[in-house]
Amino acid sequence: MTTPLAIDCQHLTHRYGQFTAVDDLSLQVRCGETVGLLGPNGAGKTTVVRVLTTLTPVQSGHVLVFGLDSRRHTMDIRHNIGYVPQQLSIEAALTGRQNVELFARLYDVPRAQRSDRVDEALHAMQLLDVAEGLAGTYSGGMVRRLELAQALVNRPSLLILDEPTVGLDPIARDSVWAQVGRMQHEFGMTVLLTTHYMQEADALCDRVALMHHGQLQAVGSPAELKRTVSAQAHVAANAAPAATLEDVFRHYAGSDLGEDTSQTGLRAVRNSRRTARRVS
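Given the sequence above, the corresponding structure tokens read:
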């Protein structure tokens, strides 16, 4: 029996003027699996995420989310996904509960179910006891868990996480992933994440898809990709230690990283650093 697909991208191409951000990308994500979308800054990951979340329309190619065409079923797709962006999405002047209630309304959670859903999401992220406090007083790890509660309040079938642990210390990162893992186990969610923490991707992902210059360079389980790079290094060096996922990253992208001097790149760096400062 064929495992149903949560995401089916076929020949996705997206350009900003003369610049091709995503170049003929085809990628499938099976229901229930965790897939890491990896690559250096400027590889095209954020554009892919924005297309999958319907924030950016498909220019060329086809994108299906649970069989729904993203060109024709935008609102249906949005009701099936939860999204945690890299930049902060909470309102510091609201309480934790009010932040989640706002997203419950945005996701069109039925009024009769809204209160229970908000409590459920806060409880899942272990924030129920601090829900009445202002979000601006939360620690970095609590802020990220609050954003997860916002993303989970509609019980999404697909959770998309864009650098969800940027700026967090190791303990806070572990806490965030423990909550995600618990929710995935309980509800069978599919998870697509981007991260620059290779150990994180290695431990969490069933498969990783590595992008560079807008193109998909490699797809496979972390173990498969590490074995491939180890075998190639062994042939080249005649005796090489086992490869890590960081070695895989460098193998496919590290030899031609270059400098991104575009305003888009500069803004992305500035926003990322601002985010890191605010959640640290």
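The first helix runs from residue 45 to 52. Try to locate this feature in the token string yourself.
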